Give the backbone structure.
Amino acid sequence: MKIGRISIFHLILGLILISCGGNETDPASVSSKVSVPSPKIPQKETSQETEKQIVEEQDIEPQLGKKEIVWQKDGAKMALIPAGSFEMGDALQEGEKEEQPVHTIELDAFYMDIHEVTMEQWKKFKGGKKLDDWVKNASPGNKHPVVGVLWEDAVAYAEAMGKRLPTEAEWEYAARGGLVGKRFPWGDENLDDDAIPRMHANFDGKGGRDKWGEKTAPVGSFPPNGYGLFDMAGNAFEWTKDWFKYEYYKKSPRKNPTGPKAGDNVNQDKKEHVIRGGSASLNSWSLRVSKRTTIANNTFHRVAWIGFRCVVDVDENRRPKLRPKNKKWDVK
Ligand SMILES: [Ca+2]
């Protein structure tokens, strides 16, 4: 397996990272209302209670059947990922053992953030709390993806916004963008020659459209995939909801799998969650859409480039489901 460069600098960054974090969510200050950009609200005299109800109904109804919505709470654009089935895993049989066996998965529809959560969104969530210098160095600007995020903090953000993290299966299905059995979100071209991958993703080094060495690019700097999702390959690694277990694919349920009950001990006898998509710090091998990654064996340097994006469930009418405040996402 090929991995990116490891340096003392990265190891220091990683050590700094594991000493920070913590859940600073203020659930009382959030809601889970969604809306389109300019919902029309009837101008008529009503009681406050009735008016609130009308506003919420007006906000939600226009979302029906829309391929893209704007999530009110964090301003994120979200794309509808249609219900369907796909072959999960490494159909090209070129990757790691944990990417096998290829197995059929059926998923309900959901909405997914079209971009990784940005520094700007993260700063608002954290109440302007100062970010570590190394995070600002890796993602130098508000439109860059937030990185250096612990899984627990990503979950806290998602819950505060009335969203959740994607399962590993949802992530791969969405990243494939409707393509079947391909290596990357855009197709199969060139694994060893970086020329084409650099037209589609920010990974270690520069060239073509990739103007960013090991730093992240502003979200949306490369073309979207077939579902309108940007940066599913490269830029920031993305947390998924699932624990990392090497042999999970042998036992995964077919319909809406939510990962194993517990992961393998991969990081100095610690369990870790799955990260997906590769990052600005690793090479094109990690951009493969079936590649499963975790923070294994003290490779903390990878944590520096971990961000995330969120999803929202939809009901049978493809309408976003509102998540009650303070309700923990139950994966059972
Ligand atoms: Ca790059």
Remarks:
- The chain is about 20% helix and 15% strand.
- Residues 2-59 form one domain.
- The helical segments are 8-18, 48-60, 119-125, 133-138, 151-160, 168-176, 197-200.
- The mean pLDDT is 81.
